[in-house]
Amino acid sequence: MTTPVAPPHRIRVGSAPDSWGVWFPDDPRQVPWGRFLDEVAAAGYEWIELGPYGYLPTDPAVLAEETARRGLKVSAGTVFTGLHHGPAVWDETWARVSEVAALARATGAGHLVVIPSFWRDDKTGRVLEDRTLTAGQWRDLAAQTERLGREVRERYGLKIMVHPHADTHIDGEENVRRFLDATDPGLVSLCLDTGHYAYCGGDSVKLIETYGERIGYLHLKQVDPAVLAEVVADEVPFGPAVARGVMCEPPGGVPALEPVLAAARALDAELFAIVEQDMYPCPPDQPFPIARRTRRFLRSCGV
Predict the structure, then answer these.
(1) How far apart are CA 167 and CA 161, in angstroms?
(2) Which distant-in-sequence residues (6+ apart) come within 8 Å of 299 by Cβ?
(3) Count of alpha carbons within 13 Å of 61, Cβ hemisphere only?
């Protein structure tokens, strides 16, 4: 009689520089990259994202050595884009995308997380452009994102995962649905960030159940409802909202992650679920204990 073999986990859990208060390639308020790598491994994670390009070593050989000796692997790189501006910004966009995509491919990652540009400055709150896109800008956003998905796949073998984000044009339910309905599922998938989607009034479980075939990647995050109510009422930009603590340690906020993970498991797809608790800026000793507790909590959720 043979012993049944348990199926492998279909959801791979990781963390990111974001959970260590890292938003920029170089900032004196951020922990050094070596400390991040040491602590993310010690907290019990095997997977990481690259974070802002230039924070971790950009030499693939150096990065491979530094991650491998800590038992870490890379799931994705991240880029910011303003593709609703149309073909005029393609060359500038591709220059940024290609360097991140090349590093991601060299480290064995399979994904590129694509974040839309902010309509207001995330530090000062200065309005950079209208928060509502015109019909023409929506068409450009869809067409140029599909182009990006095609080029990244053909040249680097990566899949793009578009990340709905607060203070961008792809944020809550209405705009996420409009974006998904306008783009080719074969070229464009979604990185569902549970915290950002809740921040913008969305229901992550409902989105997974409705657009499950488009969910290709997860960012696990929660918001503090009390702080969120304040920042929405005061029209606080995202950066200062984070400084107020709008993103909080699980399981103390919303959405509840257990039903989100249950809905994701029901898709029967292989997904990365990367923990991201925005904490910029934060004391250097704050992230590690939170990361360790969060990993224990996620194990209690079955991942």
Answers:
(1) 18
(2) none
(3) 0
